[in-house]
Amino acid sequence: MALQVELVPTGEIIRVVHPHRPCKLALGSDGVRVTMESALTARDRVGVQDFVLLENFTSEAAFIENLRRRFRENLIYTYIGPVLVSVNPYRDLQIYSRQHMERYRGVSFYEVPPHLFAVADTVYRALRTERRDQAVMISGESGAGKTEATKRLLQFYAETCPAPERGGAVRDRLLQSNPVLEAFGNAKTLRNDNSSRFGKYMDVQFDFKGAPVGGHILSYLLEKSRVVHQNHGERNFHIFYQLLEGGEEETLRRLGLERNPQSYLYLVKGQCAKVSSINDKSDWKVVRKALTVIDFTEDEVEDLLSIVASVLHLGNIHFAANEESNAQVTTENQLKYLTRLLSVEGSTLREALTHRKIIAKGEELLSPLNLEQAAYARDALAKAVYSRTFTWLVGKINRSLASKDVESPSWRSTTVLGLLDIYGFEVFQHNSFEQFCINYCNEKLQQLFIELTLKSEQEEYEAEGIAWEPVQYFNNKIICDLVEEKFKGIISILDEECLRPGEATDLTFLEKLEDTVKHHPHFLTHKLADQRTRKSLGRGEFRLLHYAGEVTYSVTGFLDKNNDLLFRNLKETMCSSKNPIMSQCFDRSELSDKKRPETVATQFKMSLLQLVEILQSKEPAYVRCIKPNDAKQPGRFDEVLIRHQVKYLGLLENLRVRRAGFAYRRKYEAFLQRYKSLCPETWPTWAGRPQDGVAVLVRHLGYKPEEYKMGRTKIFIRFPKTLFATEDALEVRRQSLATKIQAAWRGFHWRQKFLRVKRSAICIQSWWRGTLGRRKAAKRKWAAQTIRRLIRGFVLRHAPRCPENAFFLDHVRTSFLLNLRRQLPQNVLDTSWPTPPPALREASELLRELCIKNMVWKYCRSISPEWKQQQKAVASEIFKGKKDNYPQSVPRLFISTRLGTDEISPRVLQALGSEPIQYAVPVVKYDRKGYKPRSRQLLLTPNAVVIVEDAKVKQRIDYANLTGISVSSLSDSLFVLHVQRADNKQKGDVVLQSDHVIETLTKTALSANRVNSININQGSITFAGGPGRDGTIDFTPGSELLITKAKNGHLAVVAPRLNSR
Ligand SMILES: Nc1ncnc2c1ncn2[C@@H]1O[C@H](COP(=O)(O)OP(=O)(O)O)[C@@H](O)[C@H]1O
Ligand SMILES: [Mg+2]
User: Fold this and answer.
1) Which is the catalytic residue, given 66, 122, 189, 195?
2) How many whole angstroms separate alpha carbon 153 and alpha carbon 147?
3) Any residues with CB less than 8 A from the CB of 790 and at least 6 apart, and which?
4) Distance from residue 423's CA to the centre of ligand 2 (Å)
5) CB 3.0–4.6 Å: which of 77, 121, 408, 706 could bond 114 by disulfide?
């Protein structure tokens, strides 16, 4: 799979594991995250994530450039120390998802890319761990993203905090209060399509477990003039358009309204009833739903809508002058609806709209109004009705958000998180009383911001035991004083003018101002200005040099707006209203109260003081919002506009304060944790105090003494470049560490694998050994049983067959039969035969017979015709069982003759004449006296045995003279031919020796027909030597053949023993 890398708007590089679901996986645990921001080395591309790391921290250009770089990469968040700077992207960056929330939970603030959620989480954790109330102050000019940030924060807490045990609905109410308040308090302005026209401070209460259990909202000065008048290109409050666009037919009919906003004068002053970025219809649905969530009953909704509608009808009330120039209501229809919707008497209302009640000397006088006065009275009523309803609405929401567990102990142990979303600094073409109040409020908050940051900075130095170096900064107290100082301040002068008897006008107020504060360096009027500036100032205007820039205010309407007068009879009329909301808004006690109510400006001033007090009592966190362009366009970075905001938000000042001494500071633990790998002594773990570890580490890194200071719990580094060098070293080190870790991991991984394989092998081996062992054991067992059975059977072998001996008997039988195959006699002469067991005796005999018959049959079939000569049978008859070397002769074929005619001398042949030679064989003749062996030939003719010596016939023995033939029973091959003595020619018996004695003798006996005259002697043979002299041959068995003449004159023959007999 291809590696995918994505740069997400929070500023991190994410290796996307699954290409089709990048977002989900990337932010889950599967994705490999490379935090680009914390990898400060990436600073060139996306700037620095914390402005304190800017090398040139005093340069506005460098500051703006850093913002620009990051904005270009959709990195809208940057820190100045703990302060978050946010640039409105005007587009959905998908950085507020649930995964993003998880990503920022419980992590160290500086280790992750800057994000609103990082602030949210840090604040929440401080709230939980230190149990101190917190306040997030969100500031910036109109349209910079304050309300959006507040909503995101609320969403973060609603989604990530644990649910309270009871009243889980609080979370929904906290979230749903927003659309309702926005519908009634927000409007489209030139700066922002959803501009908050009231200040909002919201407290969220958390119980000791950190679950949100309640909330409370403080609202500040709704811009009620908007109800009756809007500048060109602006709208009235959203709710009017929403009701007309989204309200059901039935509702509109009841309220007497038409769908078209153009029909209502209060809605068309800005000539911009329709805005493309706003969907009133769907917003209406959201608001309707939200109303039910925050505990509105159907009746209450109806009452509320009646009031909204009544304001629209009021706007359409027209007057005409009668003869006395007194105003008369001409729009009866509107009056009728008004009477119904506000539940007041028609005639009272009519009178109240056209007359003014004056109490003079205890008497009530009705004085008719002229046209102008009547219109004024009508508009005043509309504003009063709307603004009081708004106040009631906030009260109602607060009742719904109030923790229901007021009595339980957890209520007392709640901690509070405040969210301040107040209208930002505003400059329009025409700036009036409202802008004056709003900008004053911003001055106050800026003052608080500077005080608190400076204070906390100073406190930190003090806590860390580091000498404080004074910082130059612009203190806007001078402007705050100009506005709010007692007697001399603008508000005091305005009040004075309002209360002064006589003809006080806006212009007299201006004159008074010029008189009182003319020398103030931040105040200018047409009269006070020099020639050049005078041109830009009208006569009815004054200019304040706010910390954030110059604003020219027109004094027109200041007195009226400050007085906020509602004629008494109008008040009375409203007090008599049967509409429950109205009767709560207009309290009768107001009528009897003789004391003049506080002016609007003074009320506002007081509420601001109160707000500052509230904020001071809490640990502050800051979000500073910046608007990148006036066109509400994504991707456009209007440098002039941004420079202006950077300036008036005092961001550079803030940075300077933060950088006054040291650019960077971290807790020893965090610093050591991050950089410990750079020093052999601190890597991989440092056993001692983190502070000592850091000391060792920075010494190893070669920090110069002027580059850093060691505080009590933190290290302070003076220049960013020192930190960057350390970061660079870390980056290099990380590479090598990564390689090492990889190697170690691979080693570990493969070792695990090896161990697994080894374990498996051992497992298989043992299993196999087990199997083998079991097999062997089974075999042994079987063998033992078999042996036992055999022994038992052996013992009982003579008993009749029974289970105990059956096996043995069968075994003996089968083994006899099996062995028999191997022990069969080899030839017909072999008489051996194994001894059969008793039970097989008969069968054995039969088999033996069969076997012998088979052998004989086979033998007979295999013998060749020569073998079938009679001679062999004769030889058998003569010698079988009588002479030792007979068996050897059996397999040898008798041949017709051992000597061919060519081996016999021709002279001998000649001497024999016609007598044929039937057989010839070489023999050895032993002398009758000395027993000398001599080589001779023995020839058989049909008539005689002829002994030949070379060419001479030595002796001829006619068969008639052959009286017998003697041989020994032993294995020698001597034989004696006995000759008849009567024949004198005969020399005596002949002692011969033939290598083929059996063949020679058989042939001789057959030729001479002396088969029965062959004597086989034991011991010795006596023969006739010559006349009157006998010889003796003694035969004895011995180890080898030996023929010698013995001392006794006998021929001693030792014949070898052959075990054939
Ligand atoms: N963080 C943000 N992401 C996307 N759009 C934003 C963001 N902040 C503000 N906006 C856009 O800018 C508009 C004005 O923001 P808003 O919070 O109402 O300004 P303010 O309250 O400061 O006057 C919003 O309606 C929204 O369209
Ligand atoms: Mg806002």
Assistant:
1) 195
2) 10
3) 807, 808, 811
4) 6
5) 77
Q: What is the pLDDT of residues 175-207, one digit of tens each?
A: 999 999 999 999 999 888 999 999 999 999 998
The angle at the Cα of 625, spanning 621 to 629, to the nearest 5 degrees, equals 175
Q: Cα–Cα distance between 813 and 707 in angstroms, integer?
A: 110
Residue nearest to atom 16 of ligand 1 (CA): 145
Residue 868 exposed, middle or buried by CB count within 10 Å (0-12, 13-18, 19+)? exposed
- Alpha carbons 331 and 264: distance in angstroms, whole number: 13
Q: Which residue of the set 140, 270, 418, 424 is catalytic?
A: 424
* C-beta of residue 998 within 8 angstroms of C-beta of residue 979: no
603 lines ligand 1 (CB under 6 A): no
Tell me what pLDDT residue 463 has: 87
Question: 146 CB less than 6 Å from ligand 1?
Answer: yes
185 in ligand 1 pocket by Cβ < 6 Å? Answer: no
Q: In whole numbers, what is the pLDDT of the chain averaged over residues?
A: 87
Pair type for strands 974-979 and 990-994: antiparallel
Taking CA atoms, 510 is separated from 128, 538, 598, in Å, by 51, 12, 21
CA distances from 87 to 146, 352, 635, 646 (A): 10, 50, 11, 11
- Measure 147 CA to ligand 1 centroid, in angstroms: 7
Helix (H, G, I), strand (E, B) or coil at 730: helix
Compute the distance between CA of residue 752 and CA of residue 8 in angstroms, rounded to an integer: 37
Ligand 1 and 155: CB distance under 6 A = no
| CA angle, residues 710, 713, 719, in degrees to nearest 5 | 45
One-letter amino acid for residue 681 of the chain: E
Ligand found nearest the CA of 185? 2
Q: Is 139 in the pocket of ligand 1 (CB under 6 A)?
A: no
User: Is 900 an annotated catalytic residue?
Assistant: no
182 noted as active-site residue: no
pLDDT in tens, 335-372: 999 999 999 999 999 999 999 988 777 788 889 999 99
Distance in angstroms (rounded) separating the CA atoms of residues 53 and 1001? 137
**182, 245, 426, 457: the active-site residue:** 426
